[in-house]
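Hi P.,

Sorry for the delay on this. The queue was packed all week, but I finally got your sequence through. Input first:
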Amino acid sequence: MTTAKFITFLLLGIGLSFDSFAVSVSCGLMRRDIKFKQATLVAASLAFFQATFPVIGWLIGEAIKNLIASIDHWIAFGLLALIGGKMIVEGIKEDGTLKNFNPFKLSVLIGLSIATSIDALVVGLSFGFLEIPILFPVLVIGSVTFIAAMLGMLFGKNISAKRSHQSLILGGIILIAIGLKILAEHLFLQAA
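Then the structure:
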């Protein structure tokens, strides 16, 4: 594994974790008495789904990659740009992402985990199209998400809600930049 690939996977993990970070900040804001064990449960659930969904997407991408091999880089770029744009729009909105909810209720926790992991499913789909091995990126994505979620709950006790919106915007920019990198690499390789 090259250093460039490691950095790309790390940035991807960071970009994908911003939704989980924002949700975790909300948990910290709403549940300022959150205990370490409870925070660990929330973070583990978010990380598990964030790491599992790319595998599902990758399996789907691997199955259909031959059908779309000539345009796979455009699809990967489009999907990442769409997700990144959605995150930026959500970050710009001022409406209440901090609804009163109980993140420790199993149905709420699983719902939050799935909702914050849909973008990871799409990224996994892109990996399948591009024939990128999935194990290392999944480990990075899961680890980064766990750390981001733990930090988010800690920060949620101490920072304003505005910061969680800014984190979504930054995460969206990172995902769009990775999509542009994938597109540029493939267009450059085709031209060479």
